[in-house]
Amino acid sequence: KADCIPSTAWLESYAVAEVKFFQHVARQVLCESLHLKCLQVFTCILRGRGFSSSTWKTVVMHMLTTVPLSRWRRREFVQRLWDIMAYLRRCLQVKRLEHFVLGNETLPGEISVPLAMGTVEPLNLFEHLARDPAAHAQAMRAYGQLRLRLWMLLS
């Protein structure tokens, strides 16, 4: 019975659920939607500025559930970039960025995750900032530098 999988195992990773979420969003929005362009700006152009691509992906996914999808159009590109920055700032201030899949009870039904994963306490991806004041101060400085860099890029 070496090929049996315990009932606590989940054969798909969080990454699969995240991809399914982006596919779900893509089906809901117009072809000109810019949510992926926003993600590209933060993960590519602003790379190496103190925040991982995983952090940006998580922030954008949360933003996609709070800003109506009808407001992710090309003419609102700059505003969405600043909204993403504001969301990150709030997360940094409270030292809390919740994992998007784990503990998210509002995932679309087509994204199947084990039932227990939706009801657990969400994992705080910024827990290290709450425990380490120096890391939090560094993250706030990195945010300030990133905000300035984004302002310069958009000017």
UniProtKB/TrEMBL annotation:
Residues 51-101 form the Mab-21-like HhH/H2TH-like domain. InterPro entries: ITPRIP-like, Mab-21_HhH/H2TH-like. GO terms for cellular component: membrane. PANTHER family: CELL FATE DETERMINING PROTEIN MAB21-RELATED, INOSITOL 1,4,5-TRISPHOSPHATE RECEPTOR-INTERACTING PROTEIN-LIKE 1. This is IPIL1 protein. It comes from Grantiella picta.
